[in-house]
Amino acid sequence: MGSFDRCAIVIDVREQYEWDAGHVSCATRIQIQKNPTNWRQDVLALAGGNKETPIVTYCAAGVRAQSAVDMLVQEGYTDAVNGGGYSTQLESICQACFSTSRGSAST
């Protein structure tokens, strides 16, 4: 996957131990695919109430991230994409956010 050139909410859907081993600096860890209590409210709050806000999910290889994207789309999010596996390339999303002054690092 190439680098991202626009700001998006980044959601890490991995387990806590995977997050602890390393994560994208502007990501928030929500295991959407496990359907935790309040995930809908948590994501909506991150998106500022706007379901058109770009969202990128990632995990270790992309499988869990795709499950999360599917759930987001079912909830009406129109710009949710699978970022694939954890990679330093995903940091370009954070850089796009900070260069456009949208969003803040949330870990």
From TrEMBL:
Pfam families: Rhodanese. InterPro entries: GlpE_sulfurtransferase, Rhodanese-like_dom, Rhodanese-like_dom_sf. Residues 8-95 form the Rhodanese domain. Transmembrane segments: none annotated. SUPFAM superfamilies: Rhodanese/Cell cycle control phosphatase (SSF52821). This is Rhodanese domain-containing protein.
